[in-house]
Amino acid sequence: MQTLTDEYYLVFTKGNHWVCRWLNSQCNHIVIYVKDQHNWLKLDPTSAKIIWEILPFEVSNPRVPYALHPGARVVRLRTDRASSWLGKFKFVNCITVVQYVTGLRVNALTPWSLFKKLRKLQGKPYPAKNICSVQIL
């Protein structure tokens, strides 16, 4: 039986929220990119709202997240579409939005800690955490 999976590009970049001054200076915000058959979509969870954009780039170009965020860390994540998960009590920030949208089941308080946990899971599936594959690009 084949399961449905989604592929996301998580871009760990520099944020502009006031809380970011106490976080890792180069990796304190997460922007999500996903592509369908026709368009690249960008989800940017800011402090006040979630911004969705349809980007005018070819879907066949996998370098779009790099071009829009030069020097940022990019993670290609494939997850099982079985569920969206938030766990118990969570603060509403870019990490909880990433967890909800992707269904990722990894506990992390900061974008940097999420990046480190994903880096440890690179190259191996982890069904308990709803991960099909992680690739640091």
Structure commentary:
The chain is globular and about 35 Å long. The model has no long low-confidence stretch (mean pLDDT about 75). It has 3 helices and 6 strands; from the N terminus they run ββββαβααβ. It has helices at about 65-70, 95-100, 110-120; strands spanning about 5-15, 30-35, 40-45, 50-55, 75-80, 130-135. The protein is of the alpha+beta class. A hairpin with a 4-residue loop joins strand 3 and strand 4 (about 50-55). A 6-stranded antiparallel beta sheet has the order 4-3-2-1-5-6.
Give me a quick take on this structure.
This protein is α+β, with helices and mostly antiparallel strands and 137 residues long. The protein is 18% helix and 31% strand. The radius of gyration is 14 Å and the shape is globular.
Main attributes of the structure:
3 helices, 18% helix, 137 residues, alpha+beta, six-stranded antiparallel sheet
Write the layout of secondary structure elements.
Elements: E1 5-13, E2 29-35, E3 40-45, E4 50-55, H1 64-68, E5 73-80, H2 94-102, H3 111-120, E6 131-136
Antiparallel strand pairs: 1-2, 1-5, 2-3, 3-4, 5-6
